[in-house]
Amino acid sequence: MKIYFPNLNNINEWTEWHLTYNGWEKGTQKREDNPQLIKVEPPDNRVLTCRYHENITINSTWLQKHIIEIWRDSDCERIDELLENFAGCPESL
User: Domain extents for the chain?
Assistant: First the structure.
């Protein structure tokens, strides 16, 4: 029995997370099993947007996880307050 996993040499999936006054909201996503982005417009009341990545490359046998910040409002004090209330970017696809 053969099991097929598409492009196992490079798996790169990610989800954008938007920090709002109500907490973290899931945004746009990229999945290996879907060639198109699952596009979600950012909420109007966001103050911070991060992208959580999970990837495996041909050079690594370990799942690599990382978070990058892709957008930030200028109100740093409010962002700090909300991060204190809701913690950091979710580490979840």
Answer: 10-86
Cβ atoms of 69 and 48 closer than 8 Å: yes
User: Whose CA is closest to 82, among 56, 57, 47, 37?
Assistant: 47
What is the C-alpha to C-alpha distance for residues 29 and 48, in angstroms, rounded to an integer? 16
Which residues lie below 8 Å from residue 47, measured CB to CB, with a gap of 6+? 19, 20, 21, 72, 73, 75, 78, 79, 82
Query: Are residues 67 and 89 in contact, defined by beta-carbon separation less than 8 angstroms?
Result: yes
Q: What is the pLDDT of residues 36-66, one digit of tens each?
A: 899 999 999 999 999 999 987 766 667 789 9
Contact 16, 27 (CB under 8 A): yes
Q: Could you tell me if 49 and 90 are in contact, meaning their C-beta atoms sit under 8 angstroms apart? A: no
How far apart are the C-alpha atoms of 26 and 8, rounded to whole Å? Answer: 26
